Amino acid sequence: MNSKRKIKIWPFIYMQTILMTLIGLLLGVLYSIGGLFVDLFSTGLNKGSLLAMGALWAMPILAGLVGCALGLLQWILYLLFSQFINIRLFEIFEKVD
Predict the structure, then answer these.
(1) Looking at CB atoms within 10 Å, which of 16, 55, 61, 63 has the fewest?
(2) How far apart, in whole angstroms, are the C-alpha atoms of residue 46 and residue 52?
(3) Reported pTM
């Protein structure tokens, strides 16, 4: 059995990007709805309310870009460190003979 296990880069980055985009969407929805209610009940709707609604599209995009960068960084770190120590990612899913 091969002691070095390589991970393909695109599925790994894709997984990180989708995960971070979904987290960004959730946070964007919470921020925009929360900001709308705070503005509605305190100062009334104004330009700040429009800025809070911009979080619906801006936060998922920014979080997706961060997820893509983090996925690339994690992939590079895995490749570097797996050469020095015997790291086998997802070895609990491998069949042991």
Answers:
(1) 61
(2) 10
(3) 0.72
